[in-house]
Structures are given as C-alpha cells and as structure tokens.
Design goal:
With 212 residues, this protein is of the alpha/beta class. It has one domain: Rossmann fold (3-Layer(aba) Sandwich). 37% of the residues lie in helices and 20% in strands. It has a five-stranded parallel sheet with strand order 2-1-3-6-7, sandwiched between helices. Strands 4-5 form a two-stranded antiparallel sheet. The longest helix is centred in the C-terminal third of the chain and has 20 residues.
C-alpha cells in the first residue's frame, strides 16, 4: 500500500519535518508499505479563487499530479505541519482550499445539508509542532491545528487514524519525542495495511453543518 507524507513546514530539518522523518522510519519498518515524502512548498499552487475551484490551472502540473495521486493512488496520507498563530502555514491552508474539487461532492448533500465527502480511500494521520506546552494544548485542543485537521478530513470523508502534537520548541533534537513518532508511524502503517477503521474519538467527532 502507498502512503503519501507531506511536510508543510518551510523550515526543513526543524520540528514538524523531523517528526515526519521519524514517523516515516517507523512506517518503513512495516513490510508491504511504500512511503513517498514530498515538501508542499515544492508544489506550485495558485491561490484559491472561484475560477480555479474545480480543476488545476495551466502551469500547475505538479499540483495536478498531487491531487490525482491523493484521489486515486494512495491508501494513507500523513500531514506534518508547524503551528502558526494557532493555525497552519498559508500554503497548507491554500492546498486544503484548492483540493475541494476532489474532496467534496457538491451535487449531493447529507442530512445536515453538507456536501458529501469523497476521500474514502484515505486513512490520515497528523503531526503538529508548536510552541505551546502540551498540557495547554490538551486543554485548548479545539484551538490548535490537530483538532481542525482531524475535523476537516472527516468532513472530506477520509478516515482519521490519529494526531500527535509536540510543544517542545526543540523537538528536532528531542529523542524521546522522535522515538514516539517512530512508534506511532509503525503502528499507523500496520493499521493501514490491515484496513483497520478509525479510532472511537473520530467515530463520534462532531462535524458542524456547513453550506457551500
């Protein structure tokens, strides 16, 4: 099975990027799993607007390949991101806005009036770094990217297998945290390979109604 790992930090070799590298090492311990890592900043993506809401534009060849891969070729998607002002880097937010045409079926609505998610092929996991201590993130979890990303991809119809946050500003050299990422990567890959369902939390996760 193929898993795509996307590093969304513009600072390579720092916290979330290093977390992802350790997570990938764990995934590669599992026979039958193929992992590809990309840097999102290497993919040219124009800013979202109505005119490009349905397809990649001319000149977005790498973005076109990326969305085709997400929609058709992979079983797992891992996103690693830093926390910027309680949110994510602008290019990750733009990427998420732009993939709407593969993520949502706007011609169908569920009982809440929401568009129906289409990314049923994906089992997702999220790695997030930040400067807020872990204990504070646990209390205010709804204000941080790990919560938003999980809710968002559930809305897109994907299965969410978990998320891991590190509040250590020097995560990139914290062996204890990186070892945790390694173990979590291995566990995630096993679950993807076995076709396991998402966790209990994700099964009861509230997805607020939205309208296009």
């Amino acid at each position: 099975m193929k898993i795509l790992a996307i590093s969304c930090s513009p600072s390579r070799g720092r916290n979330s990027d290093t977390m992802l590298d350790s997570f990938i090492l764990g995934m590669r311990e599992v026979s039958g799993i193929e992992v590809e890592k990309i840097y999102l900043e290497d993919v040219h993506i124009n800013s979202y607007r109505f005119e490009n809401s349905k397809d990649p534009e001319e000149g977005e060849k790498d973005f076109k390949k990326l969305v085709s891969k997400i929609a058709n070729d992979i079983s797992g998607l891992v996103i690693a991101t830093p926390t910027y002002n309680f949110s994510v880097p602008a290019h990750l937010k733009n990427f998420i806005d732009r993939i709407r045409f593969i993520a949502l079926d706007l011609t169908q609505r569920n009982k809440f009036g929401q568009p129906v998610g289409k990314l049923h092929n994906l089992k997702t996991y999220f790695l997030v770094s930040g400067g807020t201590p872990n204990w504070a993130e646990h209390i205010l979890f709804f204000a941080f990217p790990a919560f938003w990303l999980r809710a968002l991809f559930l809305y897109f119809g994907a299965k969410v297998m978990g998320a891991f946050y590190s509040g250590d500003i020097r995560t990139f050299e914290n062996k204890k945290i990186l070892d945790k990422c390694f173990k979590k990567g291995k566990k995630y890959a096993i679950r993807v390979l076995k076709g396991n369902s998402q966790g209990m939390l994700e099964n009861i996760f509230f997805r607020p109604p939205t309208r296009d």
